[in-house]
Amino acid sequence: MASQMTVLDTLQRPMRDLRISVTDRCNFRCGYCMPREAFGPDHAFLPSAEILDFDEIERVVRAAVSLGVRKVRLTGGEPLVRRGLDGLVDRLAAMDGIEDLTLTTNGSLLAARAVALAEAGLHRVTVSLDALDDETFGRMNDVGFPVARVLEGIAAAEAAGLGPIKLNAVIRRGLNEHAILDLAEQFRGTGVTVRFIEFMDVGHTNGWRLDDVVPAAEVVETISARWPLAAVEPAYRGEVARQYRYLDGAGEIGVISSVSQPFCGDCTRARLSADGQLFTCLFATAGHDVRALLRSGADDRALTDALRAIWAGRDDRYSELRTLETVDLPKVEMSYIGG
Ligand code: SAM
Predict the structure, then answer these.
(1) Strands across the sheet with 166-171, in order?
(2) Which atom of ligand 1 is closest in space to residue 75's alpha carbon?
(3) What is the mean pLDDT of residues 127-151?
(4) What is the tens place of the pLDDT at every residue in 277-318?
(5) CA distance 287 to 274
(6) Hey, which of 39, 105, 128, 142 would you mutate to test ligand 1's pocket, going by the most ligand atoms within 8 Å of its Cβ?
(7) Does the beta carbon of 283 sit less than 6 angstroms from any atom of ligand 1?
(8) How much distance in Å is there from the Cα of 207 to the middle of ligand 1?
């Protein structure tokens, strides 16, 4: 579908990426995301009737693509716990206009699913892994899940052609700082790009404190002191991670500095929650009820008009404003070359 109808928001940002949460459920209980205290046995997850079905998701994606979206990422919750996900991948892979169709997963079910996902037409996966020792990783995922099975998932994804693989690691002060060098060492020279993410104040009651954030600049310095790094110019507007390359040619790492150096000015991402709320900012507390529209019988034209109006009215720059108010952390320098 052509993008002559590309829509810009009030800050002239196009809508390029759509992140779709296909389920609110997860088999991990990472303290920074779905802590056990808030997501225990009594937690009321969404009943299936409230979750968008694949027809509904496909319609929203088609409308978003007609407005300029080119990258679609399936996420969650844990997307691989959604039954029949390959069927959704298959439909999206067949849609004209999507240049990048990816999935973010904790990797726990990936070894068994990688081939089917690749055959359905998924382009790539991003795998989250916060440590390489079972003690730390088990404490972070809070279900005692072993590292080896995530590594098996990564290997299976690579073998199935779902690379180049990115690996997300959230670093929390006092919990897994040692994983910075462990992960860098393990994946240097393998073609897997590790992206270190600053612990963010998102979601429910994750007990966020600024003191727990390990600034991206510190991650870069730590790695560069061991294996010197040089900054790489961003490949495109809106790139989330700042990339650094190893001077010895062993590949790249990325840092996602949402707290110390937010990138709202370049944010081109919309997010669709499992129950069909469209959010124009990761930190937004209220979304736009696209499910109500879909279920009220709106045709594709009305759906596209509604998405266009939502995006055209977008003025979010939450992280930047918040950072101006509260955060004084070291910034990463694009010219940084460690020694
Ligand atoms: N379950 C999948 C996974 O683990 O990748 C997909 C969903 S998860 C919410 C997507 C990514 O968000 C993961 O890489 C996770 O580490 C990251 N994330 C979740 N909460 C975060 C937080 N408070 N700060 C920074 N990153 C966070």
Answers:
(1) 229-231, 242-246, 252-256, 193-198, 166-171, 124-128, 100-105, 71-75, 17-21, 269-272, 277-279, 288-289
(2) 6
(3) 98
(4) 999 998 888 899 999 999 999 999 999 999 999 999 998 777
(5) 12
(6) 128
(7) no
(8) 15
